[in-house]
Amino acid sequence: MGAINSGPKLATVLRRPFRCVVCEYALFWSRQIKMNTGGAEFLDLAWANRSATGLICARCGYVHEFAGRKRPELWTERKGYPEADAG
């Protein structure tokens, strides 16, 4: 598992601005999260499990998990969302 990246960031999912599903806040910390399975844990192979991207809401702490090839993209709050995708 990776460490939390420095500073909360804006996120887009499928190139659309993303907000927390609990509190609707727009800033998130991100980290890689292992999607552990019982079999791999039992065989001491947890390191081989797939990873997901976790977006952790900077306001309420809710963890949103994204697995697969379409991962969220992160943007600095200062620069904002990409111009073409803002609306």
Which key features would you list for this structure?
87 residues, single chain, mainly beta, three-stranded antiparallel β-sheet
Q: Which shape, going by the Cα principal axes?
A: globular
Total beta-strand segments: 6
| Percent of residues in β-strands | 25-35%
- Strands of the widest sheet, in order across it, are 2-1-6
> How would you state the average pLDDT, rounded?
80
Estimated structural class: mainly beta
- Helix and strand pattern: EEEHEEE
Binned, the helix content reads under 10%
What summary fits the major beta sheet? 3 strands, antiparallel
> In angstroms, what is the radius of gyration?
15 Å
Helical stretch count? 1
Low-confidence stretches: none
Distance between the termini: 34 Å
Describe the structure.
Strands 2-1-6 form a three-stranded antiparallel beta sheet, with no helix packed on it. A three-stranded antiparallel beta sheet has the order 3-4-5, with no helix packed on it. A hairpin with a 5-residue loop joins β4 (51-57) and β5 (63-66). It contains one helix and six strands. The termini are far apart. 6% of the residues lie in helices and 31% in strands. It is mainly beta. The mean pLDDT is 80.
Topology:
Layout: E1 10-13, E2 16-17, E3 28-34, H1 38-42, E4 51-57, E5 63-66, E6 73-75
Antiparallel strand pairs: 1-2, 1-6, 3-4, 4-5
Brief overview:
The protein is mostly beta strands. The chain contains one helix and six strands, in the order βββαβββ.
